[in-house]
Amino acid sequence: MSSLTEKDRPIVQFLLNTGTCPRCVLRFCCVGSQMLYRHPHQDLLKDLQEFLKNSQENEGTVCLDVADPPCKRIRLEHREEGADDVNHNGAIPQLPLADSGNAAMESSAGKVCNVCLGILQQFCEADFVKKVCQKVNSADYQFTSFVFSVSLPPQLSVRERAAWLGVKQQMRNLGLPLAKDDIVQLKEAYKWIIHPQLSEELGVPADGKSLFEVSVVFAHPETEEECHFLATACPDCFKPAKNKQSVFTRMAVIKALEKIKEEDFLKHFPCPPSSPKNLCDALEIQCNNGAVFVAGRYNKYSRNLPQTPWIIDGERKLESSVEELISEHLMAEFKADSFNFSSSGREDVDVRTLGNGRPFAIELVNPRRIHFTAEEMKRLQQAINDSSDKIRVRDLQLVTRSAIGRMKEGEEEKTKTYSALIWTDKAIQREDIAFLDDIKELKLDQKTPLRVLHRRPLAVRCRLIHTMKSEYIDEHHFRLHLKTQAGTYIKEFVHGDFGRTKPNIGALLNRTADILELDVESVDVDWPPTLAD
């Protein structure tokens, strides 16, 4: 329903008399006209007053009708079977109040609404909209649209239920059956009013799928204890949560209101609710941009550089890392709050990554800048490469969140190629290692290495060495090129890790073997796409 009719008159009069604002009156009358809610507060009040005066004379509808799309509703109770909107004579009984329009006008004028606590009053005005837009503009975000969200005090749900039960009780006293079962949500009505104003002031459209969010958090300290009685009546609905400061969340309160019996509710809370002394407080006006994802491949040329910060017991062991050398430039250019680094596997601090590099992706959280041309990304890549001789980045590009999944898809089924410099305690000749070249698809059982047991669960992992090619250097040294299943522990395959990896190079050669140097020569993941130089 998008307009008021004569059957709404008792509800309009009752709510205005008890201190409800005009916009909440429209909500309780299920008015779905978005344009109507945007009318000035005082104009709406005058229109409702005129409606109360003239409604009996004009049996049709008051001139408040504007066509709009269907609106979201909040169900308050089940529709009564056979409910009717008229009495036995076919007429709607009138509230027994003299000069009802003026009385309602005086009751609502200048008061804080007893249902929305002022949210549909002062916080819909141009001054507040400008305050929100000043906050957005000062934060210096790039955006082409926005989505608006609002966090309401949980006690609003209690007051809304109380107001509806008050209406229901009043209609029953008048001998009027009540046929309504839903009202327009406060959040929905608020967005109808605020969206066009924000859009005009910011110069961009409101879009429910936008990654740029403008949010307002409301609180009302004066009434914050009003929902506490629900914890006694419905204790199962209020469970402590680590990330919540209070058990009285909006969803917990709504769940309790669905569960509590009407008579129990009426024992604890006045119906209709009383008018508060103070308006809500807009605690926070926040902006947040959806994450941006950057991907590429990196080479690591240092044998003294970890992939991620190396910190043990709060003490930093090395001054930098691959992650930091890349991310510090991205953080500065995208003006992000934080980042999350991920890659296709990882190398040890003393292992180089050569060849076409290792795929990586960085999630930049809440970036202020989000638009970069291909040329700007090339310059950013060059800046990273110029800043250090320990790493080099290629194919730096913007990607989607879903595309990052390709980096992890079938990770253990992918292959990696290594080059290992190996030492043996006993002298070797070329013919002693030549047989390694003929071994294909060698199956390993690798118990979690001792060196990573502090951060990996104890397990036996089956891995494959697809091929090996030996390169003799001298009596105690040779180089071994390996193509392996991703996730294979190469160092342990060489020295055996005290028998935890079987078979191993030492066992195959029947002598003690150890690894002196290890390089990753290729990571066979076809992502991200190669870019032209």
From TrEMBL:
The Pus10-like C-terminal domain extends over 293-524
Catalytic activity annotation: uridine(54) in tRNA = pseudouridine(54) in tRNA; uridine(55) in tRNA = pseudouridine(55) in tRNA
- Primary subcellular site in the record, as a coarse category: cytoplasm
Q: Which residues form the Pus10 N-terminal eukaryotes domain?
A: 113-287
Which GO molecular function terms does the record list? Answer: metal ion binding; RNA binding; tRNA pseudouridine(55) synthase activity
**Keyword terms:** Coiled coil, Cytoplasm, Isomerase, Metal-binding, Mitochondrion, Nucleus, tRNA processing, Zinc
A GO-annotated cellular component: mitochondrion
| Protein name, as recorded | tRNA pseudouridine synthase Pus10
Look up and give the organism this protein is from.
Poecile atricapillus (Black-capped chickadee)
